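Quick question, first post here. What does this chain look like in 3D?
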Amino acid sequence: MSLREPLLKPVPLAELRPTQITVGLREVKEKRKRWKQLADAKGSEFLGKHMIPVILGPKERHYVIDHHHLGLALIEEKVKDILVNVVADLRTLPQEGFWVFLDNRGWMHPFDENGERKTYADIPKALTDLVDDPFRSLAGELRRAGGYAKDTTPFAEFLWADALRRRMKRKAVDADFSQAIERALAFAKSKDADFLPGWCGPSDGD
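> Answer (accepted):
Ran it through. C-alpha cells below.
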C-alpha cells in the first residue's frame, strides 16, 4: 500500500513534472487572483494546506498527479517552492515502464487540447509548458456553478471537458464564456450527462 507522506523539505515548483498536457488557463488566472488575496496575510498557511500530490519517478523527479492549475498559478506568481505528498515511489522503474504504470493507475492524462490521445513523449516537462484547453476551464467553472459535484474519479474535470467539447465549438466558448456556461449547465442537468462523474441532475424518484 502506498502512503501519502508529506516531504518536510520543499520542492522547487520549477522542477515539478506534469502528468497531463493541458490546463484551463482561465482557471489558472482565477487561482492567481485568489493567491494575491491571500499571499500577504495567509500565504504560508495556504501553502501548508495545499501540498501537491506527486509520484517519485526515474532520476528522482517529482511528477504531479493533481493540482496542476495551482502549481502553474504559483509559478506565475513567483512562488519558488511547495511541499509535496509522495503518493508512490517508482524511482526504480525505467522511463517507459513508469509511464505505463501511471497510465494504468489513472495517474496521467495524455490528451491534447482537442481531446486526442497523444504519446507519453508529448507530455510537457514543465508546468509552464502546459497547453490551454478552454473546455477544461469551462468544466471547472461548471462545477463551481453547481453543474456537478466534486468527485474522486481521476481527471473527472477532463471527462466533463471532453463531453462539453463534443457539444459546442471552441470558438463559441472563446467568444462568449458566460453563454457557454449556460449551455453547459443545461447539459449538466440533463439525462444526457448522467454517465459523467459527479452528475447531480434530476432523478425519476420512487
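Strands lie at 5-6, 11-12, 22-23, 52-56, 62-64, 81-82, 84-89, 131-132.
The mean pLDDT is 92.
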